[in-house]
Amino acid sequence: MMQLHIVYMGALPEGEYSPSSHHLTMLQEVVESSSLENILVRSYKRSFNGFAAKLTDNERQKLSNMKGVVSCFPSRTLQLHTTRSWDFMGFNESISRKRNVESNIIVGVIDTGIWPESDSFSDEGFGPLPKKWKGACRGGKNFTCNNKLIGARYYSAIAPISSTRDEDGHGSHTASTAAGNHVNDASFFGLAKGTARGGVPSARIAAYRVCNDFGCGNADILSAFDDAIADGVDLITISIGAEEAIEFNEDPIAIGAFHAMAKGILTVNSAGNSGPEASSVSSVAPWLFSVAASTTDRLIVDNIILGNGKKVQGMSINSFSLHGKKLPLVRGKEILVGNLDYSRDCTTNDAEFCLDGCLDSSKVKGKIVLCDGGDSYQAGVARKSGAAGSILKNDESDYVPVVSFPTSTVRSREYNAILSYKNSTKNPEAEILKSEAITDSAAPVVIGFSSRGPNPLIPEILKPDINAPGVHILAAYSPIGRISADYNDKRSAKYKILSGTSMSGPHVAGVAAYVKSFHPDWSPSAIKSAIMTTAWTMDPSKNRDAEFAYGSGHINPLEAITPGLVYEALKPDYIKLLCSMGLSDKVITSISGDNSTCPKGSNKESPMDLNYPSMSAKIKLNTPFKITFNRTVTNVGLSNSIYKAKVSGPQNVIVKVEPPILSFKALNEKKSFIVTVSGSPGEHFLSSSLVWSDGKHIQDTDYSPRDTDVHGSHTASTAAGGVPSATIAVYKWEVRLQCNILEIPIAIGAFHAMQKGILTSTSAGNTGPGKRTLVNFSPWSLTVGAGTIDRRFVSKGVAVNIFNLENKMYPLVYGGDVPNTRKGFQPSYSRLNSVNGTLVKGKIVFCVKLNDGSGPFFANATGIIMQGVYSDYALTYPLPATYVGFDVGGEVFNTPTATISKSEEGKDSFAPYVVSFSSRGPNPTTTDILKLMSNHDPTWSPAAIKSAVMTTANVMSSENNTEAEFAYGQVTIVVALQLLMELYGILTILHLLLASTYEASVIASPEIKINVVPSVLPFKFKGEKLSFVVKVGGMTNRTLVSSSLEWKDRVHQPALHYDLREFKTCEQDLEVYVELLIYLLLSISNCLDIIGNADKVQVTDGAIPVRQFAYGCTMQTPLN
Start and end of every Inhibitor I9 domain (predicted)? Predict the structure, then answer.
């Protein structure tokens, strides 16, 4: 009997090797049948070596003994993990658990009820009920609890309900996600088949039904909280909420959760499904654990195959198959029903949107109908009208619907492509495939419908708190629950795929229960803190609203049990917060449920001082701010430990932590610290991070490409600003400067990139204007110096000063006269902590060195004036500031008062010139290649692109750039002339146009003679290569001589440049440097060929050493 086997052969051999041929040869030697047709299923030949083939046992045995075969084994069908979300978070079935403790945890689920007969709630293998359980099983008629589902209650304040039995499916889904059993072979009609499980499968469940067809009544919700707390649950998950935030004293979930918190019970609540609108989050109370919804790496798609064979990717949860049959394709407007047939009048537009009663059944039967909008409801209309399938256009939602017959939802671009195909053929047809799961490499991303912050009631409390998987989650369902929006869909399912923050909340509840199994004595806020501070940092480039979308980050279950430090808040802390909001004693009593009143003076405190695991504040745009947060952490890690603070944030924000080091000597010891955040926001949203680490426990660790420095965001937007239609891929890393080119990761990476046809553009460095200061100098990369543009910022000096003192004069003090004697810094520099806050408050500080302005800013000074060598670039500061030269500084120093003007944009008529900080050559390492130095033709090599950029650069003025090519570069031959000498350069040029003739044009100083042989290059076809020799000679007493060579064809002017310069180094009076750069549109694949094949230099009269200059390229101009 033949069976599919995998033959694994290890890594691919080096050198010439044809995997497919080798695999066929091996099979020919062992296969007993005469034909290999359909035997070889797949050759593995891209990343490793092997193949899949249908073999008998005898053939398998023979292959196993062949040379080169590592293993040969049957190909088994592996199960896709249904609750993929847990594995996606690294929370797999093999993790360490305390099952005996976990079995004593009771999860209360307030929802639509539960289906007790579901395998997810079977009590097989469970022991007796926990002794602490005080609840009851009052599930109603024909409802039975067990040792897994230990409690059930239902409430009927707004409508008659006779059972806790789940008629909707929502409650069963959330309960099984949090604490459901392991169930093998669970699927939704074959989709996502695998093992379903909850976060804590050994935990017990108590179900409280508060919802019916009319909704979920506030009275019933409060009743459920009341019972659940008294019954003895350990935590509560409630995936219910209003469409918008409700004042705490009127919000039954906030009130119930407050009571639960007071009894040591954490309440996990879904953030809401009203996103992506700002402030749409409805779960905002600080004692609630509010959860947003994000994607996992499993994406369910539904492909469409058009009659021309083209595949279009759509989205839907479609369990139906057309079995390879293509059906006629029609538009809704083409099958408009006759008005006489129905009581309603239908327009063409109504039919185009597939509205109920507007499709002609006789015209749509057996066909796939295109609908210009809608969701699964429109699909139901099409099905009701007799269509065999439907394709829906939907740009409004990222929600993927469950459909009642073959249907796929597409965006406008795909929809228009389908229409284009339909209009191009007489008999358009298509097939809608059954949905399938593919990998989503972009995950996790917060889904659009997930409600966003900021917190509409207390902006100082960041909401949502965290995000967790909430998209395409398969879990238990009610067999009598609706499958789709189509009321005529009569299917029944035990497990169903759902999306929503209702699905993300139970994930966090499961993790919270897992944490509690390791730390039974932790308070609700400690558990919440542990989960928040160990979350994965999310990528804001994929999540437009950043922390307002995902909170502290993506839940990371395994790390949550060892947070090291926790931020704990108890009932008195929450009372104090409510008092700081101005709530009356009466309201406080209403929320707390006891006689709590506001402590004296609490109305003067800020909600920012609640000991919360995140910090948030509302500030005014373009207005300087200074905010202080007070926090206390509890040591739950090692008894003796030292934690150090690490802060990151945008450049225009300064974050200071005092003290920056926390030393603990015992468990549960508490330490307090103060965080001061200041700056001037030029954006509507600013984000920073604080990490406490002892080397073992790291909180808020940034493992994502999130740009906490803003440097990467700036460079990415600048690069893609030149090609706005281009896409961007971001890679975050830390650079360590090395001296050896083979030890520089940029050089190594760029070399391998070049081999694959990828050009690497690198910055020259910011350590100029000294010579040999380049930090990126490999010959295969494009190294770029920094030049000015014709705009400069001035503020009676140089600075980007966004503050306006409105010409008001302030006292001027010298930093050296107002020292902070406790810190011991040089006060004349006015660095951080160096000036006395009492003496500089309300004054402008004068200092004698350029700095970041943090010293005067934190000392509450009004502004800062810095003096030094005149700067040709401007910086930004957190307070009014300017930087002046010594000439102006001398006058200012003797002035008793001063003001600082807001910066203005001025015209720089000298631009472009290389700015002083830009690193200079010569190249310090590769002494034979000139350094400092597109989308024209996708076939060009990196060297060709680099050459094109360099040879078309604008020639810069050496008068404005004293270091000339050392600063800005040229495509040059640079020679230091001492005696009569000759220089030969044999260069190969690749022709990129049709037939044309180039003539050499030489512009030389009188004492320089340049001969080009041949002086005419006649090209006959594109891609042709021609070589020439450059001979340079002469004698001069000058230290710097410049000449140029250009190739002209009357179309491209100039084609290339050469400059000849002499200079004296500081090491030797007359050391001669000769450099030759060959990147002149070369069609070669690596830099070694450039150096080895194209570079030939001869020097006469004294064996002058050959060394390299490291110039920058001149100002870049776009290709024509």
Answer: 5-81
Per the CB < 8 A criterion, the answer to whether 450 and 271 are in contact is yes
DSSP state of 130: P
CA–CA dist 26, 8 (Å, integer): 13
- Verdict on whether the full-model pTM lies above 0.85: no
Measure the CA–CA gap between 1047 and 590, rounded to whole angstroms. 87
Strand 389-393 relative to strand 1008-1013: parallel, antiparallel, unpaired? unpaired
Catalytic residues: 111, 170, 502
Q: How far is CA 937 from CA 597, 754, 944, 1019, 1119, in A?
A: 74, 16, 10, 19, 10
DSSP-based three-state secondary structure for 916: coil
- Looking from the CA of 349 toward its CB, the CA atoms found within 13 Å total 0
- Going 476 to 480 to 485 to 491, the CA torsion angle's sign is positive
DSSP track, 298-311: EEEEEEEEETTS-E
**Nearby residues of 100 by Cβ (< 8 Å), 6 or more positions away:** none
Helix (H, G, I), strand (E, B) or coil at 481: coil
CA angle 810, 812, 814 (to 5 degrees): 160
Number of neighbours of residue 365 by Cβ within 10 angstroms:
12
Mean of pLDDT values over 1032-1046? 72
Q: Which helix (H) or strand (E) segment is 474 a member of?
A: strand 473-476
CB–CB of 257/285 below 8 Å? yes
Residue 382's contacts (CB-CB under 8 Å, 6 or more residues apart) are 354, 359, 364, 369, 371, 389, 390, 405, 407
Q: Give the length of the chain.
A: 1120
Assess contact for 689 and 708: CB atoms under 8 A: yes
Looking up tokens 């040879």 gives 951
Q: What is the pLDDT of residues 376-416, one digit of tens each?
A: 778 888 898 899 999 999 887 677 788 999 999 999 999 99
